Amino acid sequence: MNVIQSLKYLTPMVNPNYKIDEWKIIEEGFLPEDNRASESLFSIGNGKLGQRANFEEQYSGDSLQGSYVAGVYYPDKTRVGWWKNGYPEYFAKVLNAANWIGIYITINDRELDLAGCRVLSFRRELDMKEGLLTRSFVAELAGGEQVEVVSRRFLSLVRTHTGAIHYSLRVLNFDGEIGISPYLDLDVRNEDANYNEKFWIEAWQEAKEGEACITGKTKKLDFHVCTGMKYVLLKNGVPVSENPKVISELKFVGNECNCVVGRGDKVELYKYAVNLSTLDHPVETLVEKVHLHLEEAFDTGFEGLLAEHRKAWQAKWDESDIVIEGDPVAQQAIRFNIFQLNQTYTGEDERLNIGPKGFTGEKYGGSTYWDTEAFALPFYLSTAPPRIARNLILYRYKQLGKAIENATKLGFRDGAALYPMVTMNGEECHNEWEITFEEIHRNGAIAFAILNYIRHTGDEAYLAEAGLEVLVAISRFWAQRVNISPRLKKYVMLGVTGPNEYENNVNNNWYTNTMAAWTLEYTMESLGKVKRESPTDFERIVKKSALDEEAELKHWKDIVKNMYYPVSEEHGVFLQQDGFLDKDPMTVGELDPVQRPLNQHWSWDRILRSRFIKQADVLQGLYFLEHRYDRDTIRRNYEFYEQWTVHESSLSPCIHSILASAIGDIDKAYELYLRTARLDLDDYNREVDEGLHITSMAGTWLAIVEGFGGMRIRDGMIHFNPMIPSRWKSYSFKVRFRDNLMNIHVRQDRIEISNLSPADLQVTVYGKVYPVEKGKKVQIDNSK
Amino acid sequence: MNVIQSLKYLTPMVNPNYKIDEWKIIEEGFLPEDNRASESLFSIGNGKLGQRANFEEQYSGDSLQGSYVAGVYYPDKTRVGWWKNGYPEYFAKVLNAANWIGIYITINDRELDLAGCRVLSFRRELDMKEGLLTRSFVAELAGGEQVEVVSRRFLSLVRTHTGAIHYSLRVLNFDGEIGISPYLDLDVRNEDANYNEKFWIEAWQEAKEGEACITGKTKKLDFHVCTGMKYVLLKNGVPVSENPKVISELKFVGNECNCVVGRGDKVELYKYAVNLSTLDHPVETLVEKVHLHLEEAFDTGFEGLLAEHRKAWQAKWDESDIVIEGDPVAQQAIRFNIFQLNQTYTGEDERLNIGPKGFTGEKYGGSTYWDTEAFALPFYLSTAPPRIARNLILYRYKQLGKAIENATKLGFRDGAALYPMVTMNGEECHNEWEITFEEIHRNGAIAFAILNYIRHTGDEAYLAEAGLEVLVAISRFWAQRVNISPRLKKYVMLGVTGPNEYENNVNNNWYTNTMAAWTLEYTMESLGKVKRESPTDFERIVKKSALDEEAELKHWKDIVKNMYYPVSEEHGVFLQQDGFLDKDPMTVGELDPVQRPLNQHWSWDRILRSRFIKQADVLQGLYFLEHRYDRDTIRRNYEFYEQWTVHESSLSPCIHSILASAIGDIDKAYELYLRTARLDLDDYNREVDEGLHITSMAGTWLAIVEGFGGMRIRDGMIHFNPMIPSRWKSYSFKVRFRDNLMNIHVRQDRIEISNLSPADLQVTVYGKVYPVEKGKKVQIDNSK
Questions:
Q1: Which end of chain B is more exposed for a tag (fewer CB within 10 A), N or C?
Q2: Which residue of A has its CA nearest to B608?
C-alpha cells in the first residue's frame, strides 16, 4: 500500500464536535443526533461506579441511559437459533442500575426537556484533571421562559460509593414557578436485554423529606443494590424551607419541590447519592450503610467532596500522566485514554476486572475478555503499585477451576483448562457463536501474562504460588486440542478463530499455534525452575495437578518440536492460517472508502472470505514474542499484513503502531498512534454511541511507551529505544519497574531519564547500560 | 471399517414400541414417555392439513400439540447474539393452528385424562392403506369407573379441507354421567417460538348448538384461517336430544353435552371439521365456505367420507406402492415412507412445497430446503403425473427474483441468484448461522433438478420457458463466488459449508466446487441448445437477463477449465475440503457407541474439527454426476468416506445405500436401506419426537428404485440394473417415464418388466435394450 492511500484511510478529520484541549473534552453546541456518542465520551467513573453523561433533567431525545455498579451483572439467556453442546448457557451483562442522577424539572408546569426546547447555548465539558463533568445550557421553553442551567457532577475517587451533583438554574426572563424533583428510579432496563426483560425487582424502599432510598434485587443471582439520595435545595443561596412532597411509587422514590421565582433568581440543588451492593455488604446492613455514607457526604458537602476527589485525581496523574509537547491533538487523546482507564479500574477490588467498554455502555460491558491480559496488564504494571497487576493475574488463578469446567464441557479432560473468552465469574458466557466460540487463543495471552507479570515485577515466587498451576492446565488444553495431521505428520490445530475475528473456524492460525507451543515451552521451563528452586512447592503442584511429569512433558516436547506453522517462502512471512494465500489479494488501498467500516457495509459472507483483517493476528504474536524474531522478519510481516488490515477492532492499531516503531517507521507509527489514541474521540469505527473502547486505551499507552519509547523488559533489565514523531517537541512518561520509579523525557535531540525512586537504577538505552543514582537523572544524546 | 463394527452401529434393534405389520403401524401398551415420538409417527395429513397424533380428549402428560395448515406460516424474529449484514431478518415457521380435534370428556365430573387414569389397555394403529388413525383404550378413573374408548380419524384426501373423527365411548362398569364437549381451540402456541410469543389473534367466532366456528389471524402477514366444526352425538345409536350448552370464550368455541349413562351404554360422537385459509379464499368468504363444506361433510357422514378417502388412497397406492416379499420389516418401512410422502405433498398446489418435517412437527417445519430438489423430486417424477414435478421446479422459477435479492443482500450483483437454504416465499429465513449461512451448495442442487426434470419427463421446452433463466442466474452467482487463488492459480471457493453440516466455513468443498462447475457447463450447453433450437426464446432470455454472452461465457469457460478440486493422490479420492486430511483419522468403528449420536454427546467444537461426517458430501456429488465417474472411483470414494460417516442427517444413508448398490455391495446397501427406511420408526437419531424426516423418505424410495433397482435415465432411455437383497423373495415398484408407466418386479432369479401404458416401451436392463409392447411384459433371467 502506498503512503497516500494509507493516509486516506488512516487520518480522518479530527471530530469537529469536540474541541481540542490538553486537559479537557469539550462539546459546544447542542447535537442531539450525536448525543449517545457524547454520553459515552463524557462518562464518569471511579472503578466501582460508572455513569454515562445522561442529563439529570428528563430528556425525550435519543439517549442510552446508563448507571453501572461494578461487579453487579445479569445472566441473560443467550440468543441462538439452535443451541448446541458447548455453547454458553447465559450471556452475562453489566446491569443498568438505578438512575441516581435524576432531577425532574418543570418551569411554569412545563417540562424542561432539551428535546422540546429551543436550546440557545449548550456546553459539555469533562475536566480530566479533576474528574469533573460540567454541563451548561440556556434553554427557552414553549412559553418563552429562558433558564440558564449549570450542572456539575462527579463520582468520588475517594468515597467510591458516592456521587455528587450540583445543579444550578438561573431564571433569565420570567416570574413564575419552578418544580425541582430529585429522584431515584429503579424502573430501568438494559437496551440490549436479549428478551426485552427488566432485570430488577424492587426489594425495599423508603422516601421522606429530603431523602430517599431504594433497594433493587436482580431477578437472578440475588444481587442487591441499595441506592440512596439526600439533597438540599437553595434559592439565591438560602435553603428553601417549604416542605417537599414525598414521592413513593413502585421502583421510584423522590421528593417534589416547588419554588416561586422571579427574573434573575438562582435555584441550586445539591444532590448526593450512594450506591452499595451485596458484593461488599451483607444485605441486612445495606440500608444502614447507605444512610451512613449519605450523612457523611452531606456533611462534607459538594465542594469538600470535590476537593478530596481532585486531590485523588492529582495523585493518579502524578503516576500515570504522559506529557506531549507540541501536539495538543495527541496530548488530549492520550490523557483521555489514561483518564478512562483510571476511571474504569483501580485494582483495589480483586474480584473486579476490566470490561472492554468499562462502564460506559452495555455491549460487552463489564465482562472480562483477553483484552485484560493482552493490553491492560502492561499499563497497570508500569503505572500502579504491583498489587494491582497482581490482582489482575490472580483473578484468573482463582478461576482456574471454572476454566477446567469450561474445557470439560467441550470434551477436554484430565485438568485441561480453557479460560473463557467472556466472563464475569470464570464461566464462559459469550453471546456470539460465529466469532467467539473458537477463539481459544485467549488461553495463550493468559499464559503470557504470567511471564509478563513476573519479568516486570520480579515476583519470581508467583510461579510456585499460583502461576504454574495455571500454566500446566493451559498446556494440557493445547496438548489435547492439537492433533497429528496424517498428511503433514505434524501437530496441527484445526477449527480455531484467531485474534482476527474477520475469519472464523480456520486451520493452523499461526498466532494460536505459536502461542500454544510457547505456552508448552514456558510451562516446561517453569516446572524445571520450580522443581530446582522450590522442590516442596513443586511436589505440591504435581500432586494437586496430578501431573504425570514424564508422560505429559514427553508429549509436550513432541508438540513443541513438531508443531506445524504455516509460512510463505515466497513472501518470507508467517501465514495467518492455512488458506490465507488463497484469498483474493485486494488490499485496503484498493478498497472504496465508502465501504468502510466493512462490518457496517459488507455481508458477513463477504467479510469472512476476504483477506481483510479486523485486527492484528500474526503481528500480535510478533509483538508478544518479539525477542524471537529479527527485525527483518518483523518488517516483512508488518508490511505484508498492514496491506489488508482494516483495524476495525479497537485492539488493532496500537499493536501495528508498536511494530511500526520497532522497525523504525516513525511516521507510520505516529499515524497508527493517532488512530488508536483518538479512536473514540474521532469515532473511527462509527460505534462510540455504544460505549468507549476501554481496554484498547491501554494499547494507546503502550503505543507511546513500548512504541515510541521502545520500552522492553529483557533479562531482568529495562530497556528503552526512544524515537519521537517529527511534530512533537517532546514527550515524557513515568514507569515503575520493580523497586524503581523513573521518568523518561524524550526530546528531539536528547533523552533524559530521571530516577524518582529511593534506590539506584540501571537502565539500558539504545543497547547501552546507564546507571542512574536515586534522585538523579541521566541525559543521552539523540541528535545524530 | 470392518463389517462387524459397521453392523454394530448400523443395525439397531427394531423399535419394540411398534409391531411389524406390512400395512400398519401399531403401538400396543401405553408409553407416556414415548408419546411425543408416537404423536409424530402416527401423524395424518392430506397435503393441505397435517395433524400430529395428539389425543382428542385432554391429556396432561408430555405432548406436542400440532395442527398445521399448509402454507400458513409465521415470520418469527430470528434469535442471534449479534446480527450481522446478510443474516436473515426472520425465521419462518409452520404455525400450530387451531386445535380442531379436541373433545373434552368428563366421567362423573372427573376429567378423562390418560395421564391421571389407570390405563388398562391402549392401542394406536395407523392404517396406511386407508389413511386412518385408530386409537383404542380402556381407562379406569380415580372413582373406579371404567370406559372403553375407540377413536378413529382421518384427514380427507378428497376434500382436503375436511377432517373427521368418530369418538366412541363404552361404559364398562358404572352408572352415572358423561360430559362430552367438542371444541375448537385457537389459544395455541408454537413450542419453538423464538420469543415465546403466541402468533394468533382471534378475528371472529361463532358458536351455537351443534356447530362452532373460529377465525384466527396471524399477528404478522395477515393470514386468516377459519376453522369450523359440526358434530352429532349418539347414545346407543340414537341421537342425543338434550340441548348442549354453547361455549364461547376468547379463542375458544364449543358445545358442552351431557349424557346420563348406565353400564354397557355406548356414546358416540361424530365430529367434522373444516379448515380454510386466505391462501385459497378471500377473507370475506371464508366463513361461508367453511359452513358449506361442513354441511357437505355432515351430510356425507363419517363412513361416506371414509369410503371416498379410502378409494383415493387406493389410487395413490396403485401408483406408488413398493411391494417387498419376504421381509415384513422392510415392507412396513417403505410403505411408511411412501405413505408419509403422499400425506405431505400432493403437488396440486403450486405454491406449496415439501418441508423436511412436513406437517408432523415444528422444527424446520413447512419450510422448503434443498431436500426438495435433491431428494423429493425424483420420487414425484416417477410416481406422479408430470405436472406435479413441474410444479416443484416452477416453484423455484417463480422465486428467481427473490433469489437475486438474497444474493444482492450478500453483496453479489448483476442478476446473480442465491436460492435460500430455508424459505417459505423465496426469501432466506434460516435460523442457524453456524450451519446454514454458508451452505450455498443448494444452488447446485436446484440447477441439477432442472436437468433431472427434463431428462425424466422429456419436457425439453422447459429450458427455454423457465429453466434457462434460473441457470444463468445461478451461474452468475458461482462466477462471482469463486476467486483466483494467487497461490494455486486456480479458481477456489472459500468459506462454504458443504452438505456435511459437521464442518463449517471450509475451503474448496469438493461437492460445491464440482456442482458449481457443472452448473456453468450445463448452463452454457443449454444456452447453445436454446440458441440453436428456439432463437426467439434465446433473444428474449438474453435480453431479460441482460446476458453479455461473450464476456460472461468466456469467464464461465475459464472457471470450468481452471476450477480447483481437492484430491488425494495417495488415497485415490476426491477430498471433501482442503483440510480434510489434516483431521484426526479416528473412524466410526473406533467410536464408542455410547457417544452416538455425536450431536447429542459431543461439543460443537469437537464435532467441527473431527472427521466425522453427518451426511454424504463427496458421495452426494458422485450420486448426482455418477455418469462422469468410473465404478472404481466411486468405490474408492465410497469406502473412504463411509468410514467416517455417522449418518446423523436423515439425508445420508439413502445416498450411501444407492452408491453401495452401484458398486455391487448389496449387503451394505441393504443395511443402509434399513437405516434410511426405518430411521423414524426405529428412531436412529433420537429425535423423532420433534417430527418425521419427510424429505429423506423420498431418499428411501430412491434406495430401492435407483439403488437395488439400479434405475438411471441416460441418453433419453430408462435403464435398470437390478439387484436383490438375499433375504428378499422379490420386490416390485412402478415407474413413470415420459409416456410410459411400467412395473418392475425383481425376483432372485429373474426380472419382469410390465408395460402398463398404452404405448410401446424400450427399456435397458443390464445394458441390454428390451422392447416391451403396450400391455405386455418381458422377463429377464438373473439366475447366473
A1: C
A2: A495
